């Protein structure tokens, strides 16, 4: 339920998050504070406008943020600087979401990308889980949770003609689980994901370059565990296998792999050559790649490529971005509340005499794998949980552990939350496509998986804390 109707005349409010992205890119490359201030201001205005068209639960986040500002103003002297920092964190999250939405928009209308997804969904039963979980990972790197929407739609399309209802439900469930787990695994390492970017920004001394390889190992671990559990629990009921795709994998996957290669290698190269942070490289490169990808697509009859790009750009700003207003409000407020809440929480914890430095480092590392999915069951967005909790912890240097170990623990927990929390977009989409409740699609489908994968991730993070 929305509190207010969202007027159509607000369609051009999509210019606000686009402007936030432009200013944050300028700040990333120049370090000039007034770009960050301008981005924060536009982001606050965008949230104020978009709040008139979102559900009451989203408005509640806005009210909580306002309450925290009042609390900070009444109890601290440097509340204005802390509020400005929190707004900048929220603006960064909004800018990243906007940039990634551009390439998601470009990819979702690409016939080659859609055909790639259809190819994966039509594999024979013995290969389908592996194809969809790897495909979910590859698509998730570019489309984020849009990968669940795309692949999930194609998956349900491929099972719709199955006459046996039980077989149809079993296949749909297994296909959705494969896609879910494939997407969740990207959260362990992807430079385009909120998990890695937010975590690196709040863990002192952390960098994506140092955490990427251990994060990839985490992703492989959870993918293999998911595959193993599927093989163990898959139904044994015999059924005639539907016709499967016989095309060459290299031919069908080439468009997706090319897009991934350009984006990931481009981000890494831009980061290495310019020294800009990974988030700055992502925000600046991804929209450019998206525009080029649209330019390569066949324009509608009667339109030139230039006119097609112009039309798509206007549509994105005036229609697509405003349609994401709920996500934009939630993500900005999660970053804002996490940052300002941590500012208020740190002295409160110190005032209570809680000395977290006395807690063994291995306990903290292990706990981060589990705390994030647990808070996800209570409705706490991982951005909020990580931004709120990590600043309270002792720094990795103080604990005597490498920052990458803590990053791996946090992103691993984020991945588990993405597969189990009934409040995350990924689980909500899987539930809608699978025609089950979010609780069923989350902890019901992935409860055992979370326990096994969480145990493996805990051991991996603890091992890294020793060997790195």
What does this 3D model show about the protein?
The chain crosses the membrane at residues 12-29, 34-54, 60-81, 93-114, 134-156, 177-202, 208-232, 253-272, 278-296, 328-350, 362-393, 405-431, 443-467. Keywords: Membrane, Transmembrane, Transmembrane helix. The chain is 78% helix and 0% strand. With 468 residues, the protein is an all-alpha fold. It has one domain (8-236, 255-467). Helix 2 packs across helix 4 and helix 18 (403-420) packs antiparallel against helix 20 (438-467). The radius of gyration is 22 Å and the shape is globular. The model is unreliable at 1-8 and 238-243 (pLDDT under 50).
How many helical elements?
20
> Residue share in helices?
over 70%
Radius of gyration equals 22 Å
Distance between the termini: 49 Å
Domain module tally: 1
- Overall SS class: mainly alpha
The low-confidence parts are: 1-8, 238-243
What amount of the residues lies in strands? under 5%
Q: Tell the overall outline.
A: globular
Average pLDDT number = 90
How would a crystallographer describe the biggest sheet?
A: none
Question: How would you briefly describe this protein structure?
Answer:
By secondary structure, the protein is mostly helical.
Spell out the key features of this protein.
468 residues, mainly alpha, disordered N terminus, single chain
Blueprint of the fold:
Elements: H1 15-30, H2 33-50, H3 56-75, H4 79-108, H5 111-121, H6 125-143, H7 146-159, H8 165-186, H9 194-202, H10 208-233, H11 249-274, H12 278-296, H13 305-323, H14 325-351, H15 361-377, H16 382-389, H17 396-399, H18 403-420, H19 425-434, H20 438-467
């Amino acid at each position: 339920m929305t509190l207010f109707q969202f007027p159509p005349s607000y369609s051009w409010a999509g210019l606000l998050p686009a402007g936030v992205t432009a200013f944050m890119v300028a700040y990333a490359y120049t370090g000039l504070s007034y770009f960050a201030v301008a981005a924060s201001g536009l982001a606050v205005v965008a949230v104020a406008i978009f709040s008139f068209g979102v559900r009451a639960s989203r408005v509640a986040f806005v009210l909580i943020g306002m309450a925290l500002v009042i609390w900070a103003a009444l109890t601290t002297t440097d509340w204005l600087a802390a509020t400005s920092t929190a707004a900048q964190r929220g603006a960064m999250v909004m800018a990243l979401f906007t940039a990634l939405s551009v390439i998601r928009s470009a990819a979702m209308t690409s016939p080659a990308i859609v055909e790639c997804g259809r190819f994966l969904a039509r594999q024979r039963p013995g290969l389908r889980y592996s194809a969809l979980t790897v495909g979910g990972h590859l698509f998730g790197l570019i489309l984020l949770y849009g990968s669940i929407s795309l692949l999930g739609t194609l998956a349900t399309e491929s099972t719709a003609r199955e006459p046996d209802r039980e077989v149809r439900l079993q296949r749909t469930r297994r296909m959705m689980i494969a896609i879910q787990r494939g997407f969740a695994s990207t959260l362990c390492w992807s430079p385009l994901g909120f998990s890695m970017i937010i975590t690196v920004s709040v863990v002192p001394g952390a960098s994506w370059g140092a955490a990427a390889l251990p994060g990839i190992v985490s992703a492989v671990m959870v993918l293999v565990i998911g595959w193993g559990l599927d093989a163990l629990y898959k139904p044994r009921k015999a059924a005639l296998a539907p016709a499967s795709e016989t095309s060459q994998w290299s031919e069908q996957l080439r468009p997706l792999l090319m897009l991934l290669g350009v984006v990931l290698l481009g981000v890494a190269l831009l980061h290495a050559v310019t020294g800009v942070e990974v988030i700055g490289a992502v925000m600046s490169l991804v929209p450019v790649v998206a525009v080029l990808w649209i330019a390569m697509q066949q324009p509608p009859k009667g339109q030139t490529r230039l006119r097609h790009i112009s039309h798509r750009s206007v549509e994105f700003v005036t229609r697509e971005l405003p349609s994401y207003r709920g996500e934009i409000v939630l993500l900005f407020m999660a970053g804002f509340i996490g940052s300002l809440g941590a500012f208020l929480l740190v002295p409160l914890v110190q005032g209570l005499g809680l000395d977290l430095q006395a807690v063994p480092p291995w306990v903290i590392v292990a706990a981060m794998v589990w705390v994030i999915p647990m808070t996800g069951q209570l409705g706490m967005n991982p951005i909020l949980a990580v931004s709120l909790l990590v600043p309270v912890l002792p720094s990795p240097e103080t604990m005597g552990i490498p920052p990458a170990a803590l990053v791996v623990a946090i992103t691993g927990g984020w991945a588990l939350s993405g597969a189990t929390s009934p409040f995350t977009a990924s689980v909500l989409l899987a539930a809608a496509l699978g025609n089950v409740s979010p609780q069923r699609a989350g902890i019901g489908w992935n409860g055992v998986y979370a326990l096994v994968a969480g145990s493996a991730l805990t051991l991996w993070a603890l091992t890294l804390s020793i060997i790195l």
